[in-house]
Write a structure and sequence with these properties.
By secondary structure, the protein is an alpha/beta fold. Helices cover 44% and strands 13% of the residues.
Amino acid sequence: MNLEEKKPSFFIGDLPVYGDLILAPMDGYSDLPFRRLARQLGSAVSYTEFINAGEVFHPHPKLEQRLQFTESERPLVYQLYDHQPERLLAAALILRQRNPDVIDINMGCSVHSISTRGAGAGLLKNPEKVGLIIRTLSQALDIPVTAKIRLGWDTSSQNYLEVAHAIEENGGKMIAVHARTKMQGYRGQADWTAIARIKEAVSIPILGNGDVKDVADIERIKLETRCDGVMIGRAATVNPWLLSRLDRSQVPLQMVRETFENHLRYLVEFYGDYGVILFRKYAVRYLAPYHYQRSLREQMLSVLSPDEFRKVSFLIFEELNQV
């Protein structure tokens, strides 16, 4: 069934989204090869790694790689971060020329160097500025503007409802909510009740994010919050098949092997031989549930060429097939 025959799960403005599971934007992970894999496994929207607005004017050597995407990834979201509305607008107008489907403003990054200068989660301290940023970009762009937020700076300043209203009232078309504060980082338990309160308070789509680790969590967060979609982050780097609503224990070895080989191929096509090094962190996770020769693991994590890596991984999977 093609997309025209399916019913959209929700809309970002006028943009239909077919599916309710989305790979979260993650620095160091949400590159084109992993997004490509995630889309094939079920992610309904592609978010880039966050982009420093200032680097759009003074390009970082790796910026071009962050900006590349394929037509099969649509809807494609460029995620920007900065603390100055004028700079965000100027960067967004430049990026608009690359024809993304959505511009998203990162209001959730808890990294100290970013949040303490007022960008990322630092914006949550100033809902008025949040509104100004969303209004400025929404009025100037002909594509939807969205935001990814946290619940607030810390437990004593959880102003997520005020921030959510500022986003909606100034033209924002969707909010992704990581249900922790900036000070929590990734510690403690995500507060899904806050996502439910935001969903009740605004009329635009809400994505729930935080502590979604298995299929049961997907269904539970949707039931408890009534969110329109579920954004999956760290869990997808361990079990990308979660985007297909499969727990790790449900993934057969042959599917693991196919995903393993496809992901390696995508990385090498995009980065050249350096893709082998980048794949190591994924390879270890994909093979974590299995027992195989320690010497093969050491070889896999030390070889540098794609051919050598494939030879070692072939031996590993052949050994696992005989178990």
